[in-house]
Amino acid sequence: MAVEVRDVPDAKRYEARVDGESKAAGVAAYIRTTELIAFTHTEVAPEYEGRGVGSALARTALDEARAANLRVLATCPFFAGWIARHPEYQDLLYQSRSRVSD
Q1: How far apart are CA 43 and CA 61, in angstroms?
Q2: Which residues pair with 7 in a beta bridge?
Q3: All residues at 6 or more sequence positions from 15 whose CB lies less than 8 Å from its CB, including other chains
Q4: First vs last Cα of the chain: how many Å apart?
């Protein structure tokens, strides 16, 4: 099974397609600024769950974030968990620089 992932900026999401199918097997929605990309929601079609589609989405999106020198805010539980299990991507995580406290 070949998974192809591409960024679709107009839709503000990454889309994964399997074996050249026209229907997306999975998507990862995001909000992007000049310094940050926040992953807000990831969804994989039930027939593709457990087959590496989510991992392909995460790896491609995070590799592109690294290449673009973006920090990552993983508000999506899937992305947060995936990064926690892959320490080679933890350096991308956004860290607040504010020192303000209540």
Answers
A1: 14
A2: 14
A3: 5, 6, 8, 24, 26, 27
A4: 52
Report d(CA 100, CA 94) in Å as an integer: 17
H helix intervals, the chain = 53-67, 77-85
CA distance 76 to 102: 27
The pLDDT tens digits for 33-60 are: 999 999 999 999 999 999 999 999 999 9
Q: Which residue has the tokens 């070949």?
A: 2
Structure tokens, 92: 């991308």
For 1-40, write each residue's pLDDT tens digit.
899 999 999 999 999 999 988 899 999 999 999 999 999 9
